[in-house]
Amino acid sequence: MDRGYSPEVADEIAFYLAQASDFAMLEPDVRSALAEEGVALTNTTLDDRDLWLPLLCASGTMLWPLTDGFAYYRGSFASSLAALWEVPQFGSPPAVHHLCQDKFRCLALARALAVDTPATALIENGEPLSPLDVLPNEGPLFVKPATLGAKIGIDTDSRTDGLAAALDRTRRIWARYRDRALIQSYLDGDDVRVSFLDIGDGASQPAAYRVRTTARGFPTLADSLRITQLRAADSETVDLERLDHPGVLQAARRIARGFDLRDYWSMDFRLASDGRAWFLELEVCPAITIYDFLTYLREVHGCELPQAIARAVSAAWRQRQARSSR
Q: In the structure, what pLDDT confidence band is assigned to residue 1 with cuts at 50, 70 and 90?
């Protein structure tokens, strides 16, 4: 509110930021699991520089940025600082931290990697910043913020019947959040989440899950508010189904390699009714405490989050040390 946001918008932003603080509930268990691997954990906020700056300068430190981006999350700045000091990091390189929240640039790079992406235009407060002629002349369009996550800015009217309504929606996004917006061709189908964590066994693989949270066809902020605290899939709230779709997994691996993703990440796809997979966005710091990532750990790695993180951090440390000794 000190930055000029209304109480209602401030509550939405607080919910967005709280997804990172959810980790605090599991921190004692993660700390114990890491201790068994000989790793000490210190969890701190970016504002507490007197604590984390000396640690960052200490020998034997590995940085784990729990958040990414440049809008409300600021974790990428700590990642960049660590890179300047040649501090090893758990997760993807700083460049990807800065890139990942810019959905328009991510889509452009994915498209250059020959991955299917929906037709997309970048808009600022109703003014097109990229050509509109890429959008279909007929059919519904979908509007969402260009850099925000957690379904902020997505409501029941995000699917529009025409360009005029879509442009008006971008004006409301700008007025409410001061964020640019994307107008995309709306794709009928299901949302698919791909999750990945490298636990150092040499065989870690991503897994895809079909996610249904509403009969509407797409999740909104209200849906995200309802389900974000789930620790496992609840059939009454969300339908989470393991999906063996070669197209989705092949595209995810291509993006992971092309973007230089490391250690852990997640991606969102839209699986159209004709079976075609369309890439939507990615996260280099996914919400690891949410139902879909925890389900992935249990079903694919056969363990809970603390044990999985302990194994993954140890593996990442060994990989970074081996790389630096070459």
A: very low
The pLDDT assigned to 17 comes to 65
The contacts of residue 180 (CB under 8 Å, 6+ apart) are: 104, 122, 123, 124, 129, 145, 146, 147, 170, 173, 174
Q: Take residue 235 and report the two structure tokens written for it.
A: 């059939």
pTM of the full predicted structure? 0.89
pLDDT tens digits along 143-165:
999 988 767 888 888 999 999 99
Residue type, position 99, single letter: L
Distance CA 177, CA 141 (A): 20
Q: What is the pLDDT of residues 125-144, one digit of tens each?
A: 999 999 999 999 888 999 99
Domains and CATH numbers, the chain: 119-185 (3.30.1490), 188-302 (3.30.470.20)
Three-state secondary structure of the chain? CCCCCCHHHHHHHHHHHHHHHCHHHHHHHHHHHHHHCCCCCCCCCCCCHHHHHHHHHCCCCCECCCCCCCCCCCHHHHHHHHHHCCCCECCCCHHHHHHHCCHHHHHHHHHHCCCCCCCEEEEECCEECCCHHHCCCCCCEEEEECCCCCCCCCCCCCEECCHHHHHHHHHHHHHHHCCCEEEEECCCEEEEEEEEECCCCCCCCCEEEEEECCCCCCCCHHHHHHHCCCCCCCCCCCEEEEECCHHHHHHHHHHHHHHCCCCEEEEEEEEECCCCEEEEEEECCCCCCCHHHHHHHHHHHCCCHHHHHHHHHHHHHHHHHHHHCC
